[in-house]
Each structure stands twice: as C-alpha cells, then as structure tokens.
Design goal:
Layout lengths: L1 H34 L15 H8 L16 H9 L10 H7 L2 H22 L6 H9 L2 H9 L3 H12 L6 H14 L8 H5 L3 H22 L4 H13 L16 H8 L4 H5 L1 H31 L6 H15 L7 H8 L6 H15 L5 E12 L4 E10 L1 H26 L2 H4 L12 H5 L16 E3 L2 E3 L1
Antiparallel strand pairs: 1-2, 3-4
Length: about 475
C-alpha cells in the first residue's frame, strides 16, 4: 500500500509541473497579446521569429550554402526544407519569403503536435501514470517552444530522435534509420550513441553507422553540396565562435561558460551585481563545470568496467549533458537530454533531483531583475513596432545551475549503481559464462537501482527490462 501511495505522490508532482507549464504558456500568450512580443526567455530579437527555418530554406535551391553562408547543416536538412517550402517565394530575401511561404509555419506546428503524441505512446510503455505530464513537458516545454519560435530544424529532428532512441518501434533496422536521420539533421547527436558503445552493442553501432553514411551520401549526391571537407571546415569555424560578446548568448544558455565570458568582458556588469559576487562566480563556476565533466568521464570508465550496471538511456543522457554543460549549442538542444532523463523513475535522491531539475527547466517563464537597455524594433508576430527591455534575468543564472544539478544527480546515481553492482557489495555475483555486451547479458535485467540481479524462478523478462 505504501509503495502505491508513494507512486501516486510522484505522479501528482509530475501532474503539477505539467499544469505549471500550461499556465506559463497561457501567461506567455497573454503577454504577447498585451505587449506584441513574446516574453523572456524567448529570443530577444522580436523580428527574427522563424528565421532559422527561412534562412536555411533560402539556400535549399541555390548554390553557396557552404561556401558563402557557411552552413553547419548536412545536405539532408536542405532537402527536407525543399519538401516543406514554396520555392517561388525565395526569389528575393529570406525575410520576404517568410511573409510568402506559410508551408513552413504549418509544418513546424504539425511536427510539434506529432512529437507530443509520439512522446506519450513512448513513455506509456514504461510509465503509464506519468506519460501525459512527461509528454506535455517535452512537447510544449521551453526547449521545444523555443525551437518552434526560432523555426529550428530540431523540431522535425526530434521526431526521428524519439523513434530511434525510444521503445515504440520494434524493428531494429527502422530505429537505426531514424537515428541516422536525426544525426544527419544534427551531427552532434552522435554523442547519444556513446551509451551503446559503452554497453558494447556493436550491432547497433554498425547499423546506425552504415545508415548514417548511406543517408549522407544519398543526400549529398542529390543536393550536390556539402562534402565532408566543406562541412567540417564550416563546423570548425562555427565552433570557434566570435570575439564579440553578446547579451543574447546567455539569454537561454545551457552552460555557465557564456556567463563567465560576459563576466570577464569589459561590460558594466560589476556595477550591477557588485565585485564580490562576480569574483566568486568567476572562480567557482569553471570549477563546477570541470567537476561535472570529470564526473561524467568517471561514469563512462565505470560503464566500461561494468557494462550492465548503467542503463543505455542514462549513458545517453550523460553524453548529451556533457555537451550542453561544456558548450552552448542552444537551449533547444536540451530536449534531447530531457528525453533520456524521463525514462528514469522516482527512486533515490539522484533520480529525483534529475527529474525535478528537468521539469523546472521545461517551464517557459523568466523574470528580469536588472534592465540594461531599451530597444524599439518591429515584431514579426504582431506586425508592428514594439519597445522592450534587455537585461539580466533570473533564468540566466538558474537554468545553467539546474543543468549542472541535473548532471550531478545522474552522476551520483550512476556511480551508486556501479558500486552496488559489485559482488562484494551486492552480495551476489554477475552471471558467469556470458560475454559483456552479448545478447544473453542484455536479457539478464538490472533492477531500476542498477545492481545486477538474477530474477527469481517464474519472473518474466522482456527485452532486458525488469518485470517483477
């Protein structure tokens, strides 16, 4: 009875978070109706809505996407946009095309709804009571809303990511294709396969690798641009960043690195926050980031030693978390991390901290504490000029802190699982005569806590899951 009651309590907490996300969406809608632009943490340039989509679509039917524009998107992105755009609208600039080509706007909305539906059925297979709030949090949380507002290709990419890394599809080759498509949208999603490598699931890696190469080769031959050298050079240039420090680099960042750069820049931040808090942050924040990176690497080392101690989805989450806290690919990229985290259960402090941090990061709201400048600019969504303030917000400090907290929570529970799986700790030995990473070992389930577990007679197991 107590176990059932505890599960109901956690379900109530998740439902409350989902309700809070819906309330924040309603507030953002009302704010837009009154002020003519979306509130923070949405993108600060009110005239740049959907432009990630239209700027890319502009180059989908002309030469120079890599030589002139310096695109970091593989060729598949441009072919995809050919299918969901009106070529006749792109005779002039991408800004003019935005007023003409409405196919992209409807396509974005359709993919957002599709993602939410797929998320529900994916989580329903493992967490029936929490499938709806988790689908709402990912489908309409801040990362997805931000990607929608920007018109970023993460929206359709996430569709294939869910199908590839989720358990909704049964055929392995179809999942490999979906994973390959997501990587051909966003190459950094190769990191999500680190868990498969650490678990020595070589067939999975071979299948995904072959599918990635086939899709890339086919799309390159059709598009005629974006050979590996061009793509690598553009990614290298993009990764170097710019010497110009911009406040919008921290408006929706997943890491403290951008904030540390601004603190060290010759900006009047010290007059606003004071010298002592800035000096403390300059010394503490880089250490906190490095400790998180070392923690993830320690977990990876432990996973190599004991491949079955940590589930694949958590290794994938740690891989993406390492990317998000060490660099800043954009706040919308957090959706890939959250997808993995929502496979966790409400058991143990580490998982609970990670889940609460994830839900908090999905709430689409912020509060400005200090105004720095006032701007007058046209708003695309409202169609008229609006005035808004630029400044520091609570979220610019809280969101990277929650990301680190989430990362630390996953590190703690993973290290605990590795230790608890040791024979002299758990009081049991792992199965003998089974090679790590083999199908037989994958069918010997682990308890949700992670320790190796020999099921009692009569226990049914399905696809490596523990069904006591």
């Amino acid at each position: 009875m107590s176990i059932v009651k505890k599960k109901e309590n956690w379900s109530f907490i998740e439902t409350a978070f989902a309700f809070l996300i819906v309330v924040a969406m309603v507030y953002a809608t009302r704010f837009f109706i009154v002020n003519g632009y979306l509130p923070s943490p949405f993108f600060q340039d009110t005239n740049d809505t959907f432009m990630d989509w239209y700027n890319t679509a502009y180059w989908s039917d002309r030469r120079g996407a890599y030589e002139l524009w310096g695109s970091v998107y593989p060729p598949l992105s441009f072919l995809f946009l050919r299918l969901f755009s009106a070529p006749s609208c792109y005779a002039d600039t991408s800004e003019i095309a935005r007023h003409c080509d409405q196919i992209g706007i409807f396509a974005l909305g359709g993919f957002v709804l599709l993602n939410t539906i797929i998320l529900y059925f994916t989580y329903k297979k493992d967490h029936l009571s929490t499938a709806i709030p988790r689908a709402i949090a990912l489908g309409f949380g801040m990362p997805m809303l931000f990607a929608w507002e920007r018109g970023n290709l993460i929206v359709p990419c996430f569709t294939f990511f869910i199908l590839g890394h989720g358990r909704l599809l049964k055929a392995g080759w179809i999942r490999w294709l979906c994973v390959a498509v997501s990587i051909n949208f966003k190459p950094y999603l190769m990191l999500a396969l680190v868990g498969r490598a650490l678990r020595m699931q070589w067939r999975w890696l071979e299948g995904c690798g072959i599918a990635v190469l086939l899709i890339y080769t086919a799309s390159y031959m059709v598009f005629g641009q974006g050979n590996p050298i061009e793509l690598f050079n553009d990614i290298a240039i993009f990764s170097q960043g710019s010497d110009v420090i911009k406040l919008d680099s921290i408006s929706y960042a997943s890491t403290f690195n951008a904030l540390v750069d601004i603190l060290r820049a010759p900006l009047p931040i010290m007059l606003i926050l004071g010298s002592r808090p800035i000096e403390t942050m300059e010394s503490v924040l880089p250490i906190a980031i490095r400790l998180g990176e070392l923690g993830v690497l320690a977990v990876f080392a432990g996973a190599i030693w004991r491949p079955s101690a940590i589930p694949v989805y958590r290794l994938g989450a740690l891989s993406v978390a390492l990317l998000l806290t060490a660099s800043n690919p954009g706040g919308y990229a957090e959706v890939f991390l959250f997808f993995f985290v929502f496979f966790e259960q409400w058991k143990g402090p580490g998982r609970i901290v990670a889940l609460i941090s994830t839900y908090a990061l999905c709430v689409p709201c912020d509060y400005q504490i200090v105004g720095i400048a006032h701007q007058m600019k046209n708003s695309y969504l409202s169609g008229h000029t609006v005035g808004y303030d630029l400044g520091l917000t609570v979220g610019e400090f809280v969101r990277p802190a929650l990301m680190l907290t989430l990362q630390y929570g996953l590190i703690a529970v993973s290290i605990s699982d590795i230790i608890r799986g040791l024979p002299f700790i758990a009081g049991r030995r792992p199965p003998v005569n089974v090679q790590p990473g083999s199908a037989e070992l994958n069918l010997v389930p682990s308890r949700p806590g992670g320790a190796l577990y020999t099921p009692p007679p009569g226990t049914k197991t399905v696809a490596g899951r523990w069904n006591a």
